[in-house]
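REQUEST ID: PR-0412
SUBMITTED BY: lab tech R.K.
PRIORITY: routine
TASK: structure prediction, single protein chain
INPUT:
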Amino acid sequence: PELSGGAGSGVIRLSGADVRFASEAGEIVLPLAGLQIALGGASDRIIFLTHPSLPQTTVHTADHAILDHPVILGSAELAAQRAKIRTKKHVGAAVWFSLAGALVLAVVALVLSRAWFVKMAAAAVPVSFEISAGDKVFAQMMVGKKVVKNAGVDAQLKQITDPLLAGISDTRYPFTFHVIEDATLNAFALPGGHVVLHSGLLLAADRAEEIAGVLAHEIAHVTGRHSLRNIIGSAGLYLALSAVAGDASGLLAVLADNSAFLLDRKFTRDFEREADHVGWDYLVRAGLDPAGMVSFFERMEREEKQALEKLPIGGGVAQALQIVSTHPATRERIALLEAKLRARGPAPATGKMALNYS
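STATUS: complete
OUTPUT:
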């Protein structure tokens, strides 16, 4: 109230007797004895000076250097108030950094949990959508391919696939198995249940248990919804989170527009390892020797090395032999399966299965 208009800006001067605020609107004098110093305002950016003798008057500044003024440092009473303000500032900074740290940790946790969110988002996609997409992609892929029509081969495959499928609790997918004329050692699976074997893979196998190992691995890609999770992972975490929260419309729109992405069947190493372990369980449940999976992947590894050695100097890696699911049977994956084989101990006698293809 001492100032014209009730407020004004000016200069603060401190002395051993008082604090003076001078402006064009007038002057205010706050006695040094009994002076109150407080921190406040948005984010505690403002220093407030008040005195009990002038309850309606406040002098304030955003210049925190005032706290280091010799007059304040030289007064025991004011120095004590200054110390409390400093403590409050440090606590505020600590709280801010804690909140920032918590936010960073939350983001990190979200990123690390990405695979879980992707899996939950995939669960929000109807299986019928997945089957329809797989059918369309399969039709595209078979253009120009020669599908083997051989009742004898189909009957032999059925001896493997029937016990495999009988032991799988996930019955949502109408699995169909196809053999195509292709000399490469390869097999792949599409969402919805299409599993394709190359004739070269059948010719390379020594026994039916090896084919069973490949089929179990590919079936696990389907039941694990790996193709779908591949697309969702590429679509972005926001759409995955939305689907988990109950709104899958955006995700379905992206999937509908990107079904061609399924033509690129490359799976992550995590998906390959998951298909190995789940496929292994399928073999055991079906009473089939899982050692066939190991021996065939070892064969793949040898064939790949031989193919690479035959490449001319400077030859492209793309010319190398294709292998199961277009991913190499890496030494790491084989080592993990060999460890499972050792832990399992001697396999019960199940008899050898026969599968002849020529």
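NOTES: Confidence is low (pLDDT under 50) at residues 316-327.
REVIEWED BY: pending
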